[in-house]
Amino acid sequence: MDVWHETELRVRYAETDQMGIVHHSNYLIWFEAGRSDLCRARGFSYKDMEKDDGALMVVAESYVRYKSPAFYEDIVVVKTNVAEVRSRSIRFVYEIVRPADNMLLAEGETVHLVTDADKKVRSVPEIYKRLLLADQAGQAFPAGQAPS
Question: Suppose 64 and one of 26, 54, 108, 123 were both cysteines; which one would form an S-S bond, judging by CB atoms 3.0 to 4.6 Å apart?
């Protein structure tokens, strides 16, 4: 069962160009907002990973395909999902849609390596593997609580 986490955003003036169209660089920022919200919804934050487990997620790859423009004041929804968790990497996929007309604006993915504080690649701690994959099986649990 695919479980997408949804984050709603309103396009700010600062995110647009002179024509009122969202600048392409903002889509990666929106991906990050969706990814951070997904992690919190699954029971942890980046800060938890870094502080409690010394695990940092470094972007190793990013990809965006732009389908249709977003404009100033649009409400957009960033849909985020965990596509794959491997021993030392995590791949997230995204769709950005405008609910007003159900238009797909962009889609993409990011791949993250997990490193330690010395920037050496390390394994994804098991707790985060479980938390990231929990909703893939249709399981739900309150934020801040790990699945049993």
Answer: 108
- Residue listed under structure tokens 């395909």: 65
Structure-block tokens of residue 28: 């990666």
The whole-angstrom separation of Cα 38 and Cα 117 is 23
- What domains can you pick out in the chain, each with its CATH number? 5-137 (3.10.129.10)
In angstroms, rounded to a whole number, what is the distance separating the alpha carbons of residues 133 and 79?
16
Q: Which of 2, 17, 52, 116 is the catalytic position? A: 17
* Residue 52 bears catalytic tag: no
pTM (two decimals):
0.88
**In this predicted structure, what is the pLDDT of residue 143?**
40
User: Using CA atoms, how far apart are residues 87 and 77, in angstroms rounded to an integer?
Assistant: 30
Task: Tell me whether residue 137 is exposed, middle or buried, using C-beta atoms within 10 angstroms of its C-beta: 0 to 12, 13 to 18, 19 or more.
Answer: exposed
